[in-house]
Structures are given as C-alpha cells and as structure tokens.
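Please decode residue identities from the backbone states below.
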C-alpha cells in the first residue's frame, strides 16, 4: 500500500528533524545526561515537527540502547512503539477529547506503573482545545506527576493556554523551516524516490509551504504524481497558481481610475461563480505583493510567484505610489470585514473598487495623502502639464499701461542677521489697534519654545502694517533679529489674525524716560551714520 512522502520519510531520530536544531540538540543532551523534565510544551506553526519530536522523545526516554540521546530504533521497545504493540506511550487528540472526563481518565491511569517501558508518556496534541474544566483537572497532575509519568503537550496556539499550564512545562518554540532547509530535504527525497525536480520548482514549493515541512512534502507528492520531472510550471498547475491575470487587470483599472472597467471584470468573475470574499482576499494579497516589490530589494525571496509574475509585479508597482498601495490594502481589509457580515457580497466588493478607483470620493486623511502622492508621481513622470510663465515678449507689451494700472509693490527682504526684524518704521499717525497677543504666544509654543520664554510677559499692538512688541526683556531685540525667530512670530500672528504683518519693537522703558521724544521723527542721515559705524565704517560729515 502506498504511503505518502511525509509519513514515509518522517524523522526517526533528532538529527533527521529539519530546521529545529536549537530544540533537538537540547533534547538529545537532556536524554544523554538523564536530566529530562516531567512535562514539555512544544509550540509552533503547523508542520514544523512538534508531534515528530514528541514521538522521538517518547522513544528515547524508554530506549534500551540510546545513541547520543537518540533512540536506537532497533531494541524491542523502539520496535514495539513503532508498531503500536506497546501501550505505555499514549497519544491523545485534545480536539476530540477535550472534556473533563478525558483528563480524569488520565489522572486515574497514571497511578499504575508502565507495563513494558520505564516511563508512561502522554502526548496531548492540540492541547489548546481543552476546556477550562479540563485544564483545571490537569493542573495538579501536571505539576507533580508520579516519577514514572511524563507529559508532552503540543499546540499551534500557545496564547490560548492558561499561564498556570505554561509555567508547569519546559517550553520549546518551533520555528518555521527556512526555504533553504526544505529545498535540501526535498532534493534528497526526490533522489531516493527516483524523480527529478529543478531548483526553481523546489524553491517555489518551499515558499508555498510557508515554513511547514509537512505541507512541502505533500505538495511535492502531488507534483510527483503528475510528472516525474517536476518544473516550476508543474508546481504552478498543481498549486492552482495559474489565472492571476484578473488581479493584474483589477489593479490596473484601479491605478488608471477606470471604475467602469473594474466593474466589468467583477461582473465577468461573478458570472463564473467567483466568490467575492475570495476575490477580495486575493486582491489584498496582490496589493501586498506590490508593496513587497516596492520596498524590499530581494523580493524574490519573499514572494510566492514565478519569474514571469515577478516581472509583472515590478512593472505594475512602478505605476503605484507606496501611499496608494497602503491605502488600497487598508480599504480592502475594511471591505473584507463588511463582506463577511454583509448581505450582498457583490455590492460590497463593487463599492470597494469604486472607492479605490475614484479618489475624489475619499475625504479622510489617508485618501487626501493618497491623492497628493498620486499628483507627485504624475509630476515626476511628466504626465501633468505645468503652465509656464508668459514669455518675455508678451510681458513687454504696453509696459507703460501695465505700470500705470498696477503699481509695483515694494520688495520685502527676508529677515536675516544683516536684515533684522525691524524692516521699516511704521508711518507716523497710524491708528493703533489691539491684537490677541496671548493667542499668538500660545501658537508660538507649538513651534518655538525658547522664543516664547523671551516674549513671555510682553504685549503688542497693531499699527498699520506692523505689530509693535513691548517688552522689558533686554535680550528681545537681539534674539528676534535671527531669521527663524522673526519668521516664527510672523507665522503665529498670521495663524491668529489671518493677515501678514511686519514686526517692530517698542522700548517701553525708553518711552517712560523720554515721553516727549515718542513721536520725534528719526534723522535719516544720523540713522545712516549709525548703521555705517555698526559696520565698521567711519563717515566724516564736518565738510
């Protein structure tokens, strides 16, 4: 009778287990030194070797002639356990024996000594399926079992186990088997079975297995049943990877904002009995592949696809921005939840595609960011025409008429250390009005805390196009001369008033000492001489 590959080539010693050296080495060392625990907990994803290691461990602790911590598989105990004639090793499926009565039966049995072996071993698979009552019944027995009893618990969902159970066991976490390790193991099995498989086919099988050695061998068995010379095309055909063209077409319609084309594709798929939940899931996976191609340098090591499909993914990812891809994944996942609890799956899927292909329908932050990123991409690729300024010849037509109609505005120089915040003096006689200076200072705390500390306790008024600041702090004048500080104050004023103002500083102390000079006009010549002296230039005006 034919035996499937994963059963025929199930490891019989620890050294045959693929990809779990961090666990098998420890277990073999414990058995070799006689320091085995009374309870073990094996956790990890499916097909990584949990049950296999449990069976090897149960044979090794009872083997009459262990070899470096491994069972010899030759003594009467090993042969009896393999054949099932020795009943001292009990394997229980907790999925179908999850009640309190099953655990009570175990508790009653452990008081009897083993019939042929040194230890009575209980392997409880999928232990997370036990009920709360069963867990409570197991607690005391698991903590202090008789000397001749050992427990091995295996689960794929360790987070469902009570902490009290986990703390009573020696825990081992099984990793996903790497594609390289699976490829080497499958190549050896192919040679022993007498069929061939090229490296690309084995690599594709390993990625499809998603870290599970059992899944990889099952898929290899299917491929060998179809052809004795396994290629990547054989794997794609057996695994059902053919027929992804509709996903590329849907993504192309979304990228091109062609909702009509996208709905036509959905209608054709619906006519062929395509499940809308499966379609949404496949489209999420397609967008995830585009995301991986766009962000990971060696995407071929992560994606499960052929070389031709990888080239298609690379070409299509150039048409999407990363923001657009992430937005599509987020919205499709929301639609997936709605499809599961909705009444009309087709309508929900069509609504999702229309939202993705019509960005103007999305008014949330993510939708706006997606639209901005899309505009930037089109600008970089040259797909958006930007109007250029009028040619010089057209601007030169009727210059006198233009100048007469629109007087030129005075040029406003940027604020720098050479050009301080006091750009000009406000015109005399301008009426002063109040400004919500406290609100301005509150806005300033969001951008420039040091400047807020300098201006704390100050006041200000509006005089024409100027905001005049009054403060007793002598460092204000020098501190506000830097371009950044002046700019931050102006932006805070604009956010409060909605209007752009220039800055001026009013020295309150000087005004109190010389109130009669408050409205005295400055001498332009003296101002020029003072600025020249500040620059190190001496001007003699005696002549």
């Amino acid at each position: 009778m034919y035996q499937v590959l994963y059963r025929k080539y199930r490891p019989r010693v620890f050294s045959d287990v693929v990809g779990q050296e961090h666990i098998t080495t420890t277990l073999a060392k414990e058995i070799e030194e006689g320091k085995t625990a009374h309870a073990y907990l094996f956790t990890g994803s499916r097909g990584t070797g949990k049950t296999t290691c449990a069976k090897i461990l149960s044979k090794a602790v009872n083997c009459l002639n262990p070899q470096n911590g491994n069972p010899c598989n030759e003594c009467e105990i090993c042969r009896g356990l393999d054949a099932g004639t020795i009943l001292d090793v009990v394997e229980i499926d907790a999925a179908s024996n999850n009640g309190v009565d099953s655990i009570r039966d175990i508790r009653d049995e452990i008081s009897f000594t083993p019939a042929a072996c040194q230890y009575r071993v209980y392997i409880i698979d999928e232990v997370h399926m036990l009920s709360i009552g069963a867990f409570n019944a197991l607690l005391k027995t698991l903590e202090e079992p008789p000397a001749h009893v050992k427990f091995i618990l295996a689960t794929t969902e360790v987070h469902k186990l009570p902490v009290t159970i986990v703390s009573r066991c020696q825990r081992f976490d099984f990793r996903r088997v790497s594609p390289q390790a699976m490829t080497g193991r499958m190549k050896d099995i192919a040679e022993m079975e007498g069929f061939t498989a090229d490296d690309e086919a084995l690599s594709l099988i390993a990625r499809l297995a998603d870290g599970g050695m059992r899944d990889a061998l099952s898929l290899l068995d299917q491929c060998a049943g179809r052809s004795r010379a396994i290629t990547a095309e054989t794997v794609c055909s057996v695994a059902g990877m053919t027929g992804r063209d509709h996903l590329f077409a849907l993504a192309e319609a979304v990228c091109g904002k062609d909702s009509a084309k996208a709905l036509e594709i959905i209608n054709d798929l619906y006519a062929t009995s395509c499940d809308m939940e499966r379609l949404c899931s496949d489209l999420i996976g397609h967008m995830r592949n585009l995301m991986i191609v766009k962000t990971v340098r060696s995407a071929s090591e992560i994606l499960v696809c052929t070389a031709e499909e990888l080239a298609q993914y690379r070409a299509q990812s150039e048409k999407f921005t990363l923001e657009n891809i992430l937005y599509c994944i987020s919205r499709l996942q929301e639609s997936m939840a709605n499809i599961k609890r909705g009444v009309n799956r087709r309508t929900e899927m069509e609504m999702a595609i229309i939202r993705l292909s019509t960005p103007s329908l999305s008014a949330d932050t993510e939708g706006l960011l997606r639209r901005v990123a899309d505009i930037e991409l089109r600008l970089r690729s040259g797909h958006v025409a930007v109007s250029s300024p009028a040619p010089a010849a057209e601007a030169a037509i009727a210059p006198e008429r233009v100048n007469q109609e629109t007087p030129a505005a005075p040029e406003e120089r940027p604020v720098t250390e050479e050009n301080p915040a006091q750009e000009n003096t406000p015109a005399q006689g301008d009426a002063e009005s109040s400004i919500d200076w406290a609100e301005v200072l509150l806005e300033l705390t969001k951008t420039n805390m040091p400047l807020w500390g300098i201006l704390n306790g100050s006041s200000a008024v509006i005089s024409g196009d100027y905001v005049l600041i009054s403060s007793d702090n002598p460092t204000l004048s020098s501190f506000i001369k830097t371009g950044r500080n002046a700019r931050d104050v102006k932006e805070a004023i604009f956010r409060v008033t909605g209007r752009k103002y220039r800055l001026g500083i009013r020295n309150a102390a000087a005004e109190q000492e010389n109130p009669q000079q408050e409205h005295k006009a400055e001498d332009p010549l003296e101002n020029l001489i003072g600025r020249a002296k500040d620059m190190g230039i001496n001007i003699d005006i005696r002549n």
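Observation: The longest strand covers residues 149-155.
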